[in-house]
Amino acid sequence: MWGKESNPYLQCLHAFWALGSALSPLIAAPFLASGNQYPNFITIPFTIGGLILFASSVTAFYFELFTPYKTRNRSLEAKVEIPEILVNNESNEKGVEIRKKLRFYNLACILLGSLLLCFYCGSEYNIFSYLPTFLIELPLKISKQTTAMMSATFGAMFTLFRFISILVATKVQTSTMLYISLADLILAYLLLLFAHESVVAIWISIVFIGIGCSSVFASIYAFIEQRINITNVIASIFMMSCAIISIVWPIIIGNHVDRNPMIFVNGKIYPGLTPLKWRHWIKFCQTYFAY
């Protein structure tokens, strides 16, 4: 919809997703508390969530019905500067060759984007799911109260910097944001790997993990959108790759985190190095595409 200017809008969308993730436990907590002299009605927070979803759905339906968005023609050559006559003229041998290279470039971006989203979404899912378990199982014997505070700190940094990313995305290139975030995550995990016997180091790592995760998903999506047109089919492939790792990763980490808590960190560092190869693959594809 927004083409090369999509990053700020995607950052805004995911910022409000993070805000909802942070607020939902606070809304539900009073209704789950024990020892309260007042009756608890767990249906209340679910009703609030349902009403919000209903209101947003009705709003989207209204705009789609009365002011529908006109989808632009999407094609392989839309993001690549090439002479139009070479692409459209099927009898031209050079045009046919360029079209083949465009398909290769498109497929390469889809494959690399799927791998990138796959590993990152698996990492983010495990942070939300297994961070408390990892902290409790460490030899430091961190209390449950401190564990809760650390998890809350991660959520706070994650939410706060997602809103900050909206402003940053209007001034900084998407690729720059992405590489800074990935470098931040790798350094934070390395600190957690080599200094996990220090509570202070763990606090610092968690803060920087929350900051690093804040803009990655939206930046990846915008980064790919700047290079190819993400159609409904391509977006479905990306979402499927995210879903696959979200199924496989918990089986691997969930079965071992209580006996070997460091698998929580090791399972993120090695896959986390692969996205940094993206630039080299893009250069390779662009070199192949040169004519």
From TrEMBL:
Record has Magnesium as a keyword: no
Transmembrane feature ranges: 44-65, 104-128, 148-169, 176-195, 201-223, 230-252
Signal peptide residues on this chain, from the entry's feature table: none
Pfam families listed in its UniProt record: MFS_1
Keyword field contains Disulfide bond: no
GO molecular function, one term: transmembrane transporter activity
Keywords: Membrane, Sugar transport, Transmembrane, Transmembrane helix, Transport
Name this polypeptide is given: Sodium-dependent glucose transporter 1-like protein
